[in-house]
Amino acid sequence: MRKCFAVLLTVALLLGCFGAASLAADADPFRVVATPYEDGVGLHWYTKAECETFAMIDGFRNGAPHVYIDGNYTFQGNYVHKMVLSGLTPGPHTYKIGDYEGTFNVNPGKGEAFEFIVTGDVQASDKAGFDYSAAVHQAAWEQFPGAAFSVILGDHTNDSTNEQWDLFFESFAPVLAKGALAPIAGNHDGNFKWNWFRSMFTLKEPDNPLSNLTGVYYSFDYGDAHIAVLNTNDMYPMSVIQQNWFLNDMKASDAKWKLVFMHRAPYSAGKDANLPDNLIMRRVLLPLFDKAGVDLVMYGHDHQYVRTVPMYGDKPGAQGTVYILPGAAANKRYAMGTNMLPNVRAAMAKHEEPGKPVFTGIAIDGGTLTYEAYTYDPATKAAAAYDSVTLTKTSFAGADPDYKPLPTDMLSTLPQQLMCFFSMVFHVVVSDYLFTLLPGMIGG
After folding, report:
1. CATH code of 343's domain
2. Residue 442 to residue 257: CA distance in whole angstroms
3. Hey, which end of the chain has fewer CB within 10 Å, N or C?
4. What is the pTM for the complete model shown?
């Protein structure tokens, strides 16, 4: 009897150990990422099992003056953990979630020089594809080791499945640990993939539930820059709610530099450039960027390289907005189209398909913005200077004290939304297709 009891006790202890080990493994974090969140940072991760949401910040448990936690709800069978940290001192900070360790930077405030990294679409389906793009992002961090954060211009995966998001975070884990990532919702992240993008990142979501289904638009300040991230999956031709939010957001900013990141391409000649959604976006967004006094717009979607001259009113000018499509981080590139709108053709300062992935860095120091692009050879792991431009400003528009914020609720914007939709569709069909693109196709 005693021997039998000892055997049963041993089995129970073994089962208990295995059970505890299994539970601990299920609590291991994965898909860990830091993101800009207003004046602080958002942390986001997943676990297999339900467990407490906490992180070590600079060696202290949830070490920030203000911490907001939203965790332990499920998405696609896993547990989501969200944490927002604010009130931290400017500069670099460390965080640790389980065994994962990373760093992020908090806005140093106006007058402080900084630089950051931007890469184009990842759009991978398998491990090799994600590793390819992660190597491009890694090369960017090696070229710009002092970067405050990085940006990916959309299409983090090809099909937005659990497997592909796991592969994205697995391949990008070493570079995501270097600093916060400002993610942009691409069409492969949001079109008919409701709630996926917002479930991968902790971002300041707008009070617009329909928009949040397909991506997230948000903004943040860093140094002398105000940065707005748009969701170009948000209806066609972009909801009036988001349009009004963007103008309200920009007009309230007194930053020296105003930057926009988004996915769809206003100026390009890739395979998607002449599709209706893209042409409608051009007609909606270009006037908004002019009104807001935007200095630089960067985007992905068409996997080629484009840099424009300053554009205002969709025409070249001495002053205006520079538009840049910095190629793709993916091993997938688009041929150069020839049938483009005349204003698109006139805008091009550099328009090529370099045959290699590209990464870019942007430095802002007072009245100077310096942009540098590098090609990357995955075989030799060598980077080569490819393009650069310097923008300078001697006068800066402050916040508009007389600006009256536009409505951002669904009910009051509905009439304008309907008018915008039918007007944009009419102009695209008649002006862009019948009178411009179609004759070019026939003539060509």
Report:
1. 3.30.750.180
2. 43
3. N
4. 0.93
